[in-house]
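Students often ask why we bother encoding 3D structure as a string. The short answer is that it lets us treat folding as translation between two languages. Here is a chain of 133 residues written in the first language.
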Amino acid sequence: MNPGLALPRTNITVVHREDDSGTTFLFSELLSRSSEPWRTQVGAAQSLRWPLGEGRSGNGGVAATVQRTRVSIGDVEYAYARQHRLISASVRNASGEFARPRRESFEAATAAVPWREFGDLSQLLIGLPGRST
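And here it is in the second language, the structure alphabet:
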């Protein structure tokens, strides 16, 4: 997806949640919808049997470890990424556009949901179509 990007030839330290987490559920649900191998081998849940990496407790534990570990990656709630000044990745939406984690993207996602069709507010804002911001 990034053909012109020069990445270092080094191992990447993967950091993940070791406790139950809504953040883990959302990220693993996104990965399950995007990757058949992920869906069949790992799945989507609040707590996972991760294929590799280091487990930490809470978003704060993951964010702090990623912040102090050279060449690392982890998934954390947006507020923790901002608080720890982490570089964030964009995610491809159902329209094939890359949405950046920022307020306008969250607002666009909530605007794309047909709320009146649902009996409650517990809807996943994953894989929605629309213009990214």
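Translate back mentally: The first strand starts at residue 13 and ends at 17. Keep this in mind for the problem set.
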